[in-house]
Specification:
mainly beta, Hypothetical Protein Pfu-838710-001, ten-stranded antiparallel sheet
Amino acid sequence: MEIERKYLLRSLPEHLESYPYKQIEQGYLNTEPVVRIRRSDDIYTLTYKGKGLMVREEYNLPLNAESFAHLKEKIDGRLIKKRRYLIPFDDRHTIELDIFEGDLAPLQLAEVEFATEEEANSFVPPAWFGEDVTFSTKYHNSRLSRL
């Protein structure tokens, strides 16, 4: 189960360059239900996501580079490229800040994952977060892949 909140940004956090990041490529074999392939640096996965906005089923299976390359030729829509910064927030949460590249630039989104719905509902975002778009399908990566 994945429980996450998603936000647009007012501004980038200070010293962004000091945080670790991953270079991500992802594409969608299907968008309903969501079946995604992803390369995150040198880690390859196939993901199934169920319906939902803040709470949804998610299953990840490992892929190898060869399988990823084969499936990449079969994606429906654009291949999304982004840099994901991992920013510690508190003792239990990490902000995943995505800076999109290519024709999705200058889009920037921040996501935070939670253990429970109650925790997600009581989250107070930092001041540099902007609009909460958790309940908007407009900012699902599967939708962005089809624009």
